[in-house]
Amino acid sequence: MKLKIVAVGEAVLRVPTRPLTSEEIQSAQIQGLIEHMRETLYDAPDVGLAAPQIGLPLQLVVIEDKIEYQATASEAELRERERSPVPFHVLINPKLELLSQSEISFYEGCLSLPGFTAAVPRTRKGTVEAFDHAGQPVHIEATGWYARILQHEIDHLRGTLYIDRMRSRSFSTLDNYNRYWKTRPLGELLELLDSHTSRE
């Protein structure tokens, strides 16, 4: 069953979420919810979906970065973003630790802000401790694009959206990004935006 994705402005996207108990994780209700979230993620399609995005303030995330999602990116783009396929998995009650102070910016979108994108600085490496769909503990070490996905989705569980972290002058509709900015090297684009800021 495809679930409705809520858009920015809905209160559920801005409130803290609650952890799930081990009994809840094993329940038919949560197991069914996970399957519905997976179907919704595939239907979108996108690489991650957090429970607040379907109106539930729960610490639950589903993630998958399919190889076909990367088909339109060049080899150079994939290398620059350190992006490779990530199999489907579930994170429950995740705890994120960032392993670097330095950040790198890339453009991100979000299902709860349809039609828009912006450059978002994020740490390129981190670890996550969580429970999987069966309530078993998992430890994840991620770099590059996978680390970015984890940060984006876990932010949702804290009531944070990418617009809270974005380089605000890079904010754009997807149409205009594809029309004017997508083919320009990201470093050149960000330097241009920063140079305009410094002259104001």
From TrEMBL:
The active site is at E153. It is an enzyme of class 3 (hydrolase). GO terms for molecular function: peptide deformylase activity. The keyword Metal-binding applies. InterPro entries: Peptide_deformylase, Peptide_deformylase_sf. Its EC number is 3.5.1.88. CDD domains: Pep_deformylase. Fe cation binds at C110, H152, H156. Keywords: Hydrolase, Iron, Metal-binding, Protein biosynthesis. It catalyses: N-terminal N-formyl-L-methionyl-[peptide] + H2O = N-terminal L-methionyl-[peptide] + formate. The keyword Protein biosynthesis applies. Its cofactor is Fe(2+). Binds 1 Fe(2+) ion. It holds the Pfam family Pep_deformylase. Removes the formyl group from the N-terminal Met of newly synthesized proteins. Requires at least a dipeptide for an efficient rate of reaction. N-terminal L-methionine is a prerequisite for activity but the enzyme has broad specificity at other positions. HAMAP family: Pep_deformylase (MF_00163). Belongs to the polypeptide deformylase family. PANTHER family: PEPTIDE DEFORMYLASE, PEPTIDE DEFORMYLASE, MITOCHONDRIAL. This is Peptide deformylase. The gene is def.
